[in-house]
Automatic annotation (TrEMBL):
Record domain DOMON: where: 48-163
Places the protein is found: Membrane
Organism from which the protein derives: Zingiber officinale
Pfam families in alphabetical order: DUF568 (PF04526)
Superkingdom: Eukaryota
Region (Disordered): 201-224
Primary localization class, coarse: membrane
GO cellular component annotations of the record: membrane
Keyword Membrane: yes
CDD domains on file: DOMON_CIL1_like
Keyword Transport in annotation: yes
Entry protein name: DOMON domain-containing protein
Length: 280
C-alpha cells in the first residue's frame, strides 16, 4: 500500500513537471522566425497576448526587434513603439504592420503626435530591415532602429497595440479596453528585462493661506457676515495635461479657507483624452 502511494505521488510530480514544461514552452522562447532570425532576449508582455524579441548592440546603438501579437481581426494591424518622451501613446515613434491593398504585409513608420487620425511619417530613429509575416493568426513585425546619441539611457518606454481594421491604407483606431490602455511599460535594453515604471513626480504643494478672520461685530459676535466673500486667485491659463481645461470655478465663495486641486493619475487622463477624441 505504501509503495502504491509512493508511485502515485511520483506520477503526480512527473505530470506537474511536464505541465509546467509545456506551459513554459508556450511563451516567447518557443517562437521561431523565418530567414533564420534570432534575438538575444525575449519578453512575454503583460497585455494583448504579445511578446517582444530584441538584440541591442550598445557600440552601434542599434536595436533589432521582433514584435509578436495577434491582431484583433485577420484584417487588422499590430504596432510596437518607443516613446522617448515617456508619455504613453502620444509621442510614440511607431512601427505598424498590416496588410496593404494588394494583400501583402508591410511595416510602416508613424510619429504619433496626437490622438486623431494618423499618417505615415519618418520617426526619430533611423530604421531599416522593416518586414512582417503572419503565422497561425499571429503577426510578427521586424525592424532595426538606431537610437540617437541624445538618449543617454538604455531604459526606454515601450508602447504596443493591436487594432481591428485598416481603411484606405491607414490603420484605424484600436479598442479602449483596459488591456489596450495599459499596453505600455519600461524595458532595459542592455539587460533584457522589464523594469518598473518610474514613480511620478509629486504634485507641488498648494500654496494656500487662510483668509483673515472677520472683525468682531458691534455686538462682539464673530459670526460671519453672509454678504462677505473671499476671492480665489488661480494662475492664468491653468491647464491639465492633454489640453483638458479645468471647468470654470466659482470666483467668490463664502467662508473659503483653501481650495486644493488634486492631480489625477496619468492613466485617468489618458482615458479621458482617448474618449474625447473618439469618433462614431
Amino acid at each position: 500500500m505504501a509503495a502504491g502511494s509512493h508511485n502515485f505521488a511520483l506520477l503526480c510530480a512527473l505530470l506537474f513537471a511536464a505541465s509546467a514544461s509545456v506551459s513554459a514552452a508556450g511563451g516567447c522562447s518557443s517562437d521561431k522566425f523565418s530567414s533564420n532570425r534570432t534575438f538575444a532576449h525575449c519578453l512575454d508582455l503583460p497585455q494583448l497576448n504579445s511578446s517582444l524579441h530584441f538584440t541591442y548592440d550598445s557600440a552601434a546603438r542599434s536595436l533589432s526587434i521582433a514584435f509578436v501579437a495577434p491582431p484583433d481581426k485577420p484584417e487588422g494591424w499590430v504596432a510596437w513603439a518607443i516613446n522617448p518622451t515617456g508619455g504613453g501613446m502620444r509621442g510614440s515613434q511607431t512601427l505598424i504592420g498590416f496588410h496593404q491593398a494588394d494583400g501583402t504585409l508591410a511595416v510602416k513608420t508613424y510619429n504619433i503626435s496626437g490622438y486623431g487620425p494618423i499618417s505615415e511619417a519618418p520617426i526619430a530613429f533611423d530604421t531599416s530591415d522593416l518586414a512582417a509575416e503572419l503565422s497561425g493568426g499571429t503577426m510578427r513585425i521586424f525592424g532595426k532602429l538606431v537610437l540617437p546619441k541624445e538618449m543617454t539611457t538604455t531604459t526606454v518606454e515601450q508602447v504596443w497595440q493591436v487594432g481591428e481594421t485598416v481603411a484606405n491604407g491607414v490603420p484605424q483606431k484600436h479598442r479602449f479596453d483596459k488591456e489596450n490602455l495599459e499596453s505600455k511599460g519600461f524595458v532595459d535594453l542592455s539587460n533584457g528585462v522589464i523594469v518598473p515604471s518610474p514613480a511620478p513626480a509629486p504634485a507641488p504643494a498648494a500654496n494656500c493661506t487662510s483668509p483673515p478672520a472677520p472683525a468682531p461685530s458691534a455686538s462682539g459676535s464673530n459670526k460671519i457676515n453672509m454678504t462677505q466673500s473671499t476671492s480665489l486667485a488661480l494662475p492664468e491659463n491653468l491647464m491639465l495635461e492633454g489640453d483638458l481645461r479645468i471647468p470654470e470655478l466659482v470666483n467668490r465663495w463664502v467662508d473659503l479657507e483653501c481650495s486644493e486641486m488634486e492631480t489625477k493619475s496619468s492613466l485617468f487622463l489618458e482615458i479621458i483624452i482617448e474618449i474625447a477624441h473618439c469618433r462614431p
